[in-house]
Amino acid sequence: MNTIIINGADDEAFSDAAKALREGKLVAFPTETVYGLGADALNQDAVKRIYEAKGRPSDNPLIVHIAEVYKLKELVAEIPETAALLIEAFWPGPLTMVFKKSNLVPDIITAGLDTVAVRMPASPIAQRLIKEAGVPVAAPSANISGRPSPTTSKHVIDDLNGRIEYIINGGPCQVGVESTVLDVTTDIPVVLRPGGVTLEMLEKVLGKVDTDPALEIKGDKKPRSPGMKYRHYSPKAEMFLISGESDSIVKKINNLIKESSRQGLKVGVLTSRENAHKYSADVIVNAGSVKHAEQIATGLYDSLRTFDEKKVDIIYSETFEEKGIGRAIMNRLKKASSGKIIEADKEK
Question: Are 233 and 301 in contact (CB under 8 A)?
Fold first, then answer.
């Protein structure tokens, strides 16, 4: 298949891409979070092609994207009062809400669940594409399943060139991690995936908000939302997270670098800007300052993909404070490492 790569500012090509969506074809496009791989959400054959192009497990539900609030009523059975408050506060933006689905939504979207995840992206390109296509757009991240999500068109090209019809180049994504997923079908809303809208922001609007225990506990439960079950966001090399106090983390990682180097391994380190000069690994990726966690989030997936480009054999990563956007950063790093965490402070 010949993938057509277009500039988001090219009006004629953009209209062709919107038409392609209506015709059941696949279009990768930028949002404020990551690039999405879009198909007409009401076209089961088109949605099936998303799973095929990504190599995505069929029991992993998809998010439906809309560009106008009134379209939500067609997709869901009801809009709870909590959801109305959140729409007013955070839409358009990086918040996905899980509702009881309407009969219009095909089971292939929801992986057989009776709920559907919906969001309204803030990206002008995403909004325009959805409006011009005239259909709700199912769109997981535009990458091979399990790989780090794409935050530039180059990332999408690296993974999906030749597998889909269109890629819209809209520059780098601003948030850099996926949307927050919040279940609003319960009395107290539950965070199923941390993301661009933080727990603190949600609590400011709603008061009490719960967090799903499955974010920390491994198991074979059917995913209630994208990103809950499978290994995600992963570089090709094995990755370990090192937790503890900053000085202990640095000491432990340096010891691990020496040990791995003696074994002939090419070592990568994901570090904060504050500690970057303290390591002597083969590949050192500066994730950004701990004082500006939002910058770490923006560049996180690009950082993980750098390790693939440099062909490292093993990666050691610092851990980051789990508050604000830091919860989303650590959620992605735990997924990327399959939960392999070394406690530096427990060592003498």
Answer: yes
- Alpha-carbon distance of 24 to 33, in angstroms, equals 24
Query: Any idea where the domains of the chain sit in the sequence?
Result: 4-215, 238-346
The pTM for the full model equals 0.93
pLDDT in tens, 63-111: 999 999 999 999 999 999 999 999 999 999 999 999 999 999 999 999 9
Residues sharing a CB contact under 8 Å with residue 69, sequence separation 6 or more, in sequence order: 87, 91, 120
114-123: pLDDT as tens digits: 999 999 999 9
Give the closest residue to 76 by CA, choosing from 47, 101, 97, 52: 101
Q: What is the CATH number of domain 238-346?
A: 3.40.50.11030
> Is the model's pLDDT at 220 over the cut of 60?
no
Query: Top-level CATH class of 4-215?
Result: alpha beta
Question: Which among 203, 159, 157, 166 has a CA at the least distance from the CA of 22?
Answer: 166
Asked whether the beta carbons of 215 and 232 are under 8 A apart, the reply is: no
What DSSP character marks residue 331? Answer: H
